[in-house]
Amino acid sequence: MPWCHADYGRADTLMWIEAVAASRRNNTAHEFCIFDAGGHLLGSCGINGIQLDNRLANLGYWVRSSATGEGVATSASRQLVAWTFANTPVHRLEIIAAVGNLKSQRVAEKLGAEREGILRHRLLAADGFTDAVLYSIINEQESSAA
User: Fold this and answer.
1) 46 touches 60 (CB < 8 A)
2) pLDDT of the chain along its 146 residues, tens only?
3) Neighbour tally for 108: CB within 10 Å
4) Choosing a second label site near 93 at 20 to 30 A (CA), which of 28, 54, 68, 75?
């Protein structure tokens, strides 16, 4: 991720917190931190890119290297999906993962997201553009009620 760099520091964190607060007020994103029982930061997950007119948002997650493979992203994202459908008008969540990011794709699959296809040059990484896999989660309760 472009924001994750060797010089990331306190000022970057404070700017992120300010941006998160503003996006929550504007209803353009809802970001959450993930902590363990001891209060240690494990990562974050959130919905962003909210398009209220299309009732669509992006679901993203990030887990620190020392906590990967422990179900942290899946557990937090599962809770976030339920929270999103219960507390926002969002009907469709999209997950976009780089084609080489198999761990992120596995999280999407564990969430029950449907793989829809490959998006060419969808993500800009440090070494250039990369293709991405698009997954979606639909609010099925709302679909069956309609």
Assistant:
1) yes
2) 555 666 777 887 788 778 878 888 888 899 999 999 999 999 999 999 999 999 999 999 999 999 999 999 999 999 999 999 999 999 999 999 999 999 999 999 999 999 999 999 999 988 899 999 999 999 988 766 65
3) 26
4) 68
Give backbone dihedrals phi and psi of 55, rounded to 5 degrees, phi first.
55, 50
Domains and CATH numbers, the chain: 10-145 (3.40.630.30)
96 conformational bin, left if phi > 0, alpha if psi -120 to 50, beta if neither = beta
pTM beyond 0.85: yes
CA angle 96, 69, 75 (to 5 degrees): 65
- Contact (CB, 8 A) for 52 and 91: no
- Tokens (6 digits) for 89: 């008008």
Q: How do strand 128-138 and strand 114-125 relate by DSSP bridges? A: antiparallel
Helices 102-110, 72-87: inter-axial angle, 10-degree rounding: 50
